[in-house]
Amino acid sequence: MMKYDKFDLTGKVALCAGGSSGLGYQFARAMASAGADVAIVARRETKPETITKCVEDVVAHYGRIDILVNSAGIPCRNVAETQSYEDWMLVMDSDLNGPFWLMHECVRLSMKERQYGKIINIASIHAFVSRLGYNTNAYCAAKGGLLMLTKSLAQEWAKYNITVNGIAPGYFPSELTGAYIDAPAFKKVCEDYSPMGRPGITGEMDGLCIYLASDASSFTTGRMIETDLRGCQDERICWKSSDDYRRGPWHWILLRPGGCPPGDEAGTGGH
Question: Which is deepest, 17, 34, 62, 109, by most CB within 10 Å?
């Protein structure tokens, strides 16, 4: 019997934005373990020229980009009528504008010419639902925009043999969710509204990422796959957490197949 090898990423080059922590880091590890060369970008700077330089550097180093994972994202919890323009744009630049320009440049500088590409946008369950008391209007708007951008670009770039899909996760352990994910009130939310009765566990979406990054999904495009918590529209719990998100430069970690940087500890997934 022939071995089914369409999930094998050996020889593929992946760029993972937002890959220094959370789900992005977990997905980068998963793709490396499946055989891909992975360039991890921790992105706080979203200027177009900086993004262009990032993509140019990866193409210069590896010769191409086969897979892009857009996992960078920050929330900002502010009441709409008092939210500043700067806070609004901070979220939009990180969660929507930056991902679009990164897709734009990967297609322009590599994928279109090679007639091949796999793009995976990491949105959120908040692309579909909002909840009273959370005050995540900017985050919901940006992730909802990423949902429709995924669908639109899937139509536009199919002629180049580029698939554009997304994952809309519920709650996973990460630096973004650490302030409340272990709180008793939030555990009750998960028990009531999650089909699994709990938050996600690190590694539980690795298979989905590998599927969308591999040739196993060659006829799947324009899909935003929800993983959890779809039915919690009426949830009313709120919490406080830090909104100290500072901009900084891009920085790089290069992952070789099957491994992580020296001294690395197991990461946690979350978004």
Answer: 17
Question: What is d(CA 223, CA 177) in angstroms, rounded to the nearest whole number?
Answer: 25
**Under 8 Å between Cβ of 93 and 146:** no
Q: By the 8 A CB rule, do 270 and 172 touch?
A: yes
Task: Tell the residue number behind the tokens 């949105």, with chain if given.
Answer: 123
pTM of the model: 0.80
The set of catalytic residues is: 139
Q: Which two tokens stand for residue 132?
A: 């009273």
Cα-trace Rg, the chain: 18
Q: Which domains does the chain have, with CATH numbers?
A: 13-255 (3.40.50.720)
Burial of 57 (0-12, 13-18, 19+ CB in 10 A): middle
DSSP state of 130: -
39-85 confidence digits (pLDDT tens): 998 766 678 899 999 999 999 999 999 999 998 777 666 777 788 88
Query: Which token pair is 239?
Result: 């919490």
Give the SS3 label for residue 267.
Answer: coil
Write out the H or E segment, with its range, that includes residue 254. strand 251-255
